[in-house]
Amino acid sequence: MCGEGGKILISKAFIQEQGNGKLRDEEQLVFEELTQRSISIDFYTEKRIQRRQLPLDNQSLVVGDMSCVLGALKQLGIPEPLINDYPACLNYLMYRKKWISTVSKLEKRFIDGNYAPIFAKPATRSKRFTGCIFETEHDLYKIYGVSRQEKLLCSEVVYWVSEYRVYVVNSEIRSIDFYNGNESVFIDVKKVQQAIKSLDDAGESYVGYVIDFGVLDSGETALVEMNDGFAVGAYSIDRKNYTDLILARWEELLSSRKG
Protein backbone atom coordinates (compact mmCIF):
# COMPACT_ATOMS: atom_id res chain seq x y z
CA MET A 1 0.00 0.00 0.00
CA CYS A 2 1.55 3.27 -1.10
CA GLY A 3 1.71 6.32 1.10
CA GLU A 4 1.80 9.97 0.12
CA GLY A 5 3.86 10.42 -3.04
CA GLY A 6 4.38 6.66 -3.26
CA LYS A 7 7.37 6.85 -0.92
CA ILE A 8 6.11 4.44 1.73
CA LEU A 9 4.85 0.94 1.06
CA ILE A 10 3.11 -0.65 4.04
CA SER A 11 3.23 -4.42 3.65
CA LYS A 12 2.50 -5.58 7.20
CA ALA A 13 0.84 -4.37 10.37
CA PHE A 14 1.48 -5.05 14.03
CA ILE A 15 -1.73 -4.71 16.02
CA GLN A 16 -1.86 -4.64 19.81
CA GLU A 17 -3.90 -7.29 21.59
CA GLN A 18 -4.89 -7.18 25.25
CA GLY A 19 -4.17 -10.83 26.00
CA ASN A 20 -5.85 -14.01 24.76
CA GLY A 21 -6.31 -12.35 21.39
CA LYS A 22 -8.70 -9.72 22.72
CA LEU A 23 -8.74 -6.44 20.77
CA ARG A 24 -10.00 -3.01 21.76
CA ASP A 25 -12.60 -1.43 19.47
CA GLU A 26 -9.99 0.68 17.64
CA GLU A 27 -7.69 -2.23 16.93
CA GLN A 28 -10.65 -4.34 15.83
CA LEU A 29 -11.62 -1.71 13.24
CA VAL A 30 -8.12 -1.62 11.78
CA PHE A 31 -7.78 -5.41 11.85
CA GLU A 32 -11.00 -5.87 9.87
CA GLU A 33 -10.11 -3.19 7.33
CA LEU A 34 -6.52 -4.31 6.77
CA THR A 35 -7.68 -7.92 6.43
CA GLN A 36 -9.96 -6.77 3.62
CA ARG A 37 -7.03 -4.90 2.07
CA SER A 38 -4.91 -8.08 2.23
CA ILE A 39 -2.27 -6.57 4.51
CA SER A 40 -0.30 -9.10 6.57
CA ILE A 41 -1.08 -8.78 10.29
CA ASP A 42 0.79 -9.86 13.43
CA PHE A 43 -0.54 -9.32 16.93
CA TYR A 44 1.62 -8.14 19.81
CA THR A 45 1.37 -7.31 23.50
CA GLU A 46 2.72 -4.22 25.23
CA LYS A 47 5.46 -6.33 26.79
CA ARG A 48 6.84 -7.22 23.36
CA ILE A 49 7.07 -3.54 22.42
CA GLN A 50 8.86 -2.78 25.68
CA ARG A 51 11.34 -5.55 24.96
CA ARG A 52 11.81 -4.42 21.35
CA GLN A 53 10.82 -7.83 20.05
CA LEU A 54 8.99 -6.60 16.93
CA PRO A 55 10.92 -6.55 13.62
CA LEU A 56 9.90 -3.00 12.69
CA ASP A 57 10.95 -1.29 9.47
CA ASN A 58 9.70 1.24 6.92
CA GLN A 59 7.07 -1.18 5.66
CA SER A 60 5.52 -1.73 9.12
CA LEU A 61 2.39 -0.13 10.53
CA VAL A 62 2.05 -0.22 14.31
CA VAL A 63 -1.43 0.10 15.82
CA GLY A 64 -2.11 0.29 19.53
CA ASP A 65 -2.48 2.53 22.55
CA MET A 66 -0.34 5.62 23.12
CA SER A 67 2.44 3.94 25.10
CA CYS A 68 2.85 1.17 22.54
CA VAL A 69 2.94 3.47 19.53
CA LEU A 70 5.42 5.78 21.25
CA GLY A 71 7.56 2.72 22.01
CA ALA A 72 7.49 1.78 18.34
CA LEU A 73 8.48 5.29 17.28
CA LYS A 74 11.42 5.18 19.69
CA GLN A 75 12.55 1.84 18.31
CA LEU A 76 12.38 3.24 14.78
CA GLY A 77 14.37 6.32 15.78
CA ILE A 78 11.49 8.69 15.03
CA PRO A 79 11.26 11.64 17.46
CA GLU A 80 8.08 11.77 19.51
CA PRO A 81 5.80 14.37 17.90
CA LEU A 82 5.29 17.47 20.00
CA ILE A 83 1.92 17.90 21.66
CA ASN A 84 -0.13 20.68 20.10
CA ASP A 85 -3.56 20.36 21.72
CA TYR A 86 -4.27 24.08 21.37
CA PRO A 87 -2.66 25.26 18.10
CA ALA A 88 -1.67 28.92 18.16
CA CYS A 89 -3.37 29.56 14.83
CA LEU A 90 -6.70 28.51 16.36
CA ASN A 91 -6.60 30.83 19.37
CA TYR A 92 -9.51 32.72 17.85
CA LEU A 93 -11.66 29.59 18.27
CA MET A 94 -10.80 28.92 21.91
CA TYR A 95 -13.18 31.47 23.49
CA ARG A 96 -11.23 31.05 26.73
CA LYS A 97 -7.80 31.88 28.12
CA LYS A 98 -5.14 29.16 28.24
CA TRP A 99 -1.71 28.94 29.84
CA ILE A 100 1.06 26.57 30.93
CA SER A 101 1.40 25.88 34.65
CA THR A 102 2.61 23.19 37.06
CA VAL A 103 1.08 21.11 39.83
CA SER A 104 2.99 23.24 42.33
CA LYS A 105 1.51 26.47 40.95
CA LEU A 106 -1.95 24.94 40.94
CA GLU A 107 -1.61 24.10 44.63
CA LYS A 108 -0.34 27.61 45.42
CA ARG A 109 -3.31 29.10 43.58
CA PHE A 110 -5.68 27.67 46.18
CA ILE A 111 -3.36 28.36 49.11
CA ASP A 112 -3.46 32.03 48.05
CA GLY A 113 -7.26 31.93 48.07
CA ASN A 114 -7.84 32.07 44.30
CA TYR A 115 -10.87 29.85 43.83
CA ALA A 116 -11.75 30.68 40.24
CA PRO A 117 -12.32 27.23 38.68
CA ILE A 118 -9.81 26.10 36.05
CA PHE A 119 -9.48 23.13 33.76
CA ALA A 120 -6.09 21.42 33.86
CA LYS A 121 -4.56 18.40 32.13
CA PRO A 122 -1.02 17.03 31.67
CA ALA A 123 1.06 18.99 29.17
CA THR A 124 2.91 15.80 28.20
CA ARG A 125 1.78 12.39 27.00
CA SER A 126 2.57 10.84 30.37
CA LYS A 127 -1.18 11.10 31.14
CA ARG A 128 -0.52 10.92 34.85
CA PHE A 129 -4.14 11.97 35.36
CA THR A 130 -7.22 12.76 33.29
CA GLY A 131 -7.92 16.39 32.51
CA CYS A 132 -10.52 17.81 34.89
CA ILE A 133 -11.86 20.91 36.62
CA PHE A 134 -10.28 22.17 39.85
CA GLU A 135 -12.40 24.48 42.01
CA THR A 136 -10.94 24.18 45.52
CA GLU A 137 -8.00 22.60 47.30
CA HIS A 138 -10.24 19.58 47.94
CA ASP A 139 -9.97 18.73 44.23
CA LEU A 140 -6.22 18.26 44.50
CA TYR A 141 -6.78 14.60 45.39
CA LYS A 142 -7.24 14.11 41.64
CA ILE A 143 -3.51 14.65 41.18
CA TYR A 144 -2.31 12.84 44.29
CA GLY A 145 1.10 11.31 43.68
CA VAL A 146 1.82 13.43 40.60
CA SER A 147 5.13 15.30 40.68
CA ARG A 148 4.77 18.92 41.78
CA GLN A 149 6.96 19.85 38.78
CA GLU A 150 4.58 18.17 36.31
CA LYS A 151 3.67 20.67 33.58
CA LEU A 152 -0.02 21.38 33.05
CA LEU A 153 -2.11 22.78 30.23
CA CYS A 154 -4.66 25.05 31.88
CA SER A 155 -7.64 26.98 30.62
CA GLU A 156 -10.61 28.91 31.91
CA VAL A 157 -13.68 26.81 32.57
CA VAL A 158 -16.41 27.03 29.95
CA TYR A 159 -19.65 25.12 29.66
CA TRP A 160 -20.21 22.82 26.72
CA VAL A 161 -23.71 22.07 25.44
CA SER A 162 -22.40 19.44 23.02
CA GLU A 163 -19.05 18.04 21.89
CA TYR A 164 -18.01 16.36 18.64
CA ARG A 165 -14.86 14.74 17.29
CA VAL A 166 -13.87 15.59 13.71
CA TYR A 167 -11.60 13.11 11.89
CA VAL A 168 -9.39 14.70 9.23
CA VAL A 169 -7.31 12.98 6.53
CA ASN A 170 -5.38 15.05 3.99
CA SER A 171 -7.33 18.15 5.08
CA GLU A 172 -10.63 16.38 4.35
CA ILE A 173 -13.31 15.76 6.98
CA ARG A 174 -13.94 12.01 7.05
CA SER A 175 -16.33 11.79 10.01
CA ILE A 176 -17.97 14.00 12.64
CA ASP A 177 -18.82 11.93 15.73
CA PHE A 178 -20.90 13.12 18.68
CA TYR A 179 -19.49 12.14 22.06
CA ASN A 180 -20.89 14.33 24.84
CA GLY A 181 -23.81 16.57 25.76
CA ASN A 182 -26.91 17.31 23.68
CA GLU A 183 -26.56 15.57 20.33
CA SER A 184 -29.24 17.78 18.77
CA VAL A 185 -26.99 20.84 19.13
CA PHE A 186 -24.63 20.53 16.17
CA ILE A 187 -21.36 22.36 15.58
CA ASP A 188 -20.84 24.95 12.84
CA VAL A 189 -19.08 22.90 10.16
CA LYS A 190 -18.00 26.04 8.28
CA LYS A 191 -15.98 27.03 11.35
CA VAL A 192 -14.39 23.59 11.40
CA GLN A 193 -13.46 23.86 7.72
CA GLN A 194 -11.99 27.30 8.40
CA ALA A 195 -9.96 25.80 11.25
CA ILE A 196 -8.59 23.07 8.97
CA LYS A 197 -7.50 25.73 6.46
CA SER A 198 -5.91 27.80 9.25
CA LEU A 199 -3.93 24.74 10.40
CA ASP A 200 -2.74 24.06 6.85
CA ASP A 201 -1.77 27.69 6.25
CA ALA A 202 0.14 27.84 9.55
CA GLY A 203 1.92 24.52 9.02
CA GLU A 204 0.35 23.11 12.20
CA SER A 205 -1.63 20.28 10.59
CA TYR A 206 -0.80 16.61 10.04
CA VAL A 207 -1.84 14.26 7.26
CA GLY A 208 -4.12 12.57 9.80
CA TYR A 209 -5.50 14.07 13.01
CA VAL A 210 -8.65 14.62 15.03
CA ILE A 211 -9.95 17.96 16.18
CA ASP A 212 -12.69 18.21 18.79
CA PHE A 213 -15.23 21.03 18.65
CA GLY A 214 -18.20 21.82 20.82
CA VAL A 215 -21.01 24.30 21.21
CA LEU A 216 -20.73 26.58 24.23
CA ASP A 217 -23.68 27.76 26.30
CA SER A 218 -23.19 31.08 24.47
CA GLY A 219 -24.04 29.32 21.20
CA GLU A 220 -20.52 29.65 19.78
CA THR A 221 -18.78 26.72 18.15
CA ALA A 222 -15.40 26.50 19.91
CA LEU A 223 -12.26 24.36 19.84
CA VAL A 224 -12.10 21.70 22.55
CA GLU A 225 -8.69 20.32 21.56
CA MET A 226 -6.68 18.81 18.72
CA ASN A 227 -4.99 15.40 18.82
CA ASP A 228 -2.34 13.76 16.66
CA GLY A 229 -3.73 10.94 14.55
CA PHE A 230 -1.22 8.16 15.26
CA ALA A 231 -3.16 6.83 18.29
CA VAL A 232 -6.65 8.24 18.76
CA GLY A 233 -9.96 6.91 19.93
CA ALA A 234 -12.72 5.88 17.53
CA TYR A 235 -16.29 6.83 18.33
CA SER A 236 -18.75 6.08 15.52
CA ILE A 237 -16.35 6.49 12.59
CA ASP A 238 -16.36 3.55 10.17
CA ARG A 239 -13.43 1.20 9.85
CA LYS A 240 -12.28 2.44 6.41
CA ASN A 241 -11.99 6.10 7.37
CA TYR A 242 -10.46 5.32 10.76
CA THR A 243 -7.84 3.07 9.16
CA ASP A 244 -7.14 5.69 6.49
CA LEU A 245 -6.41 8.23 9.25
CA ILE A 246 -4.14 5.96 11.29
CA LEU A 247 -2.32 4.76 8.20
CA ALA A 248 -1.85 8.20 6.64
CA ARG A 249 -0.37 9.65 9.82
CA TRP A 250 1.90 6.63 10.36
CA GLU A 251 3.20 6.89 6.79
CA GLU A 252 3.91 10.58 7.41
CA LEU A 253 5.90 9.70 10.51
CA LEU A 254 7.81 6.96 8.68
CA SER A 255 8.72 9.40 5.90
CA SER A 256 10.56 11.52 8.48
CA ARG A 257 12.71 8.57 9.55
CA LYS A 258 16.40 8.91 8.83
CA GLY A 259 18.31 5.95 7.48
Q: Could you explain the architecture of this structure?
A:
The protein is α+β, with helices and mostly antiparallel strands. It has three domains: 4-81; 88-92 and 159-229, ATP-grasp fold, B domain (D-amino Acid Aminotransferase, Chain A, domain 1, 2-Layer Sandwich), CATH 3.30.470.20; 97-156, Dna Ligase, domain 1 (2-Layer Sandwich). It is 26% helix and 27% strand. The protein has helices at 25-36, 46-50, 66-76, 103-111, 189-202, 239-255, and strands at residues 12-16, 40-44, 60-63, 98-102, 118-122, 132-134, 151-156, 160-169, 172-181, 208-216, 221-228. The protein has a four-stranded antiparallel sheet. A four-stranded antiparallel sheet has the order 9-8-10-11. A three-stranded parallel sheet has the order 2-1-3, with helices on both faces. The longest helix is centred in the C-terminal third of the chain and has 17 residues, at 239-255. Residues 1-6 have low confidence and may be disordered.
Q: What attributes characterize this protein structure?
A:
259 residues; alpha+beta; D-amino Acid Aminotransferase, Chain A, domain 1; Dna Ligase, domain 1; 3 domains; 4-stranded antiparallel β-sheet; 11 strands; 26% helix; disordered N terminus
If you average the pLDDT, what whole number results? 93
How many domains comprise the coordinates? 3
Please give the share of residues in helix.
25-40%
Low-confidence stretches: 1-6
Q: What Rg do the Cα atoms give?
A: 19 Å
Structural class: alpha+beta
Strand content: 25-35%
Major beta-sheet overview: 4 strands, antiparallel
Alpha plus pi helix count? 6
User: In one word, what is the shape?
Assistant: globular
Q: What is the number of E strands?
A: 11
What string gives the helices and strands in order? EHEHEHEHEEEEEHEEH
First-to-last CA distance = 21 Å
Spatial strand order of the main sheet? 4-7-5-6
